[in-house]
Design brief:
There is one protein chain. It contains 5 helices and no strands. By secondary structure, it is mainly alpha-helical. It has one domain. The protein is elongated, with a radius of gyration of 17 Å. It binds zinc ion (ZN).
Length: 112
């Protein structure tokens, strides 16, 4: 469970992370569904291009919009490039202070 003190939750940006991750996950599920129950990915190519663009836009939007309210550091964009997928997702739902300016939304007056 994501703790209340987690930066992403305390700054009310958890929904952005969920939305940004949902875009590529939905794309993956649609591809699997087409492969297993539909006519295969080849028959579905035109829609696939549109969905891939939408998934990319959704994730890019998450990278641009999840920011530190104090220093405006783009947290998702910065993290994705530095860690592998599982560790950045885990880090992202647990960190409590901005890695750049140390701003903590739970204790705004105190640097973590
Ligand atoms: Zn910051």
């Amino acid at each position: 469970m994501i703790q209340k003190a987690a930066f992403i939750r305390a700054t009310h940006q958890l929904w952005k992370l969920v939305a940004a991750l949902a875009c590529p996950i939905i794309l993956g599920l649609v591809i699997l569904y087409q492969e297993w129950f539909g006519e295969g990915v080849a028959a579905f190519r035109d829609n696939l291009i549109v969905l891939t663009v939408l998934a990319f836009i959704g994730f890019a939007w998450g990278c641009l919009s999840i920011i530190c309210p104090k220093c405006h550091c783009r947290l998702l964009a910065q993290t994705v490039g530095q860690k592998d997928f599982i560790s950045w997702v885990r880090w992202f739902v647990t960190f409590t202070a901005c890695p750049k300016c140390r701003f903590s939304p739970v204790e705004p007056g105190k640097a973590a």
